[in-house]
Amino acid sequence: xxxxxxxxxxxxxxxxxxxxxxxxxxxxxxxxxxxxxxxxxxxxxxxxxxxxxxxxxxxxxxxxxxxxxxxxxxxxxxxxxxxxxxxxxxxxxxxxxxxxxxxxxxxxxxxxxxxxxxxxxxxxxxxxxxxxxxxxxxxxxxxxxxxxxxxxxxxxxxxxxxxxxxxxxxxxxxxxxxxxxxxxxxxxxxxxxxxxxxxxxxxxxxxxxxxxxxxxxxxxxxxxxxxxxxxxxxxxxxxxxxxxxxxxxxx
Length: 251
Known about the structure:
By secondary structure, the protein is an alpha/beta fold. The protein has helices at residues 21-35, 81-100, 109-118, 139-143, 202-211, 223-230, 239-249; strands at residues 12-16, 42-46, 62-65, 104-107, 122-123, 128-137, 153-160, 163-164, 172-177, 180-187, 191-194. Helices cover 31% and strands 23% of the residues.
């Protein structure tokens, strides 16, 4: 199915928080590529630059949240004014999304935002260095429409300082890895979050490695090791999840 074949005319919304233009613009380009949406149907809001606009959930086909340098588990006093604003805006939005069971897919940062809404413990217990990991579907994951046709186990790009330590019973676990038990989950029928990055290809993660080299994801002398880690296995299947999300909710 091409973008011209997608039903409906409602746009999807990408909520982004990357301050640097290069990784921010590349993130948007990757979401366009893997969703198959034209720019006019994937509207981007850069929350690090501007307050979240009023969002009428009846007027958007779905909401996608990109990754972020923000960490939900950071001490309040260490969070910038921008991070505090973004977290407050995201909390209000997620409350409304979950109450409506509106289509939502949060990639990486979505785990922090949706996990916070659930009251899940979010900390560094299951942090993963920037790398490729094997993600395995649960029984519920194999039955989920967004994961239809995905292999039972597939390589995915990760890199995060925090994760959900224990998923509450109010959510459904869809995928795990050996080093992080909550890699993807669902709330209700239409609200999703992934810890891995379904929007990334190799060039995209290399851009981020360089852009965030001083953000504490790896030691200063580990740049080459980190670049080698993301080249350790080809990542080819995860983008299907984004396309499945769009095909399910474009109406």
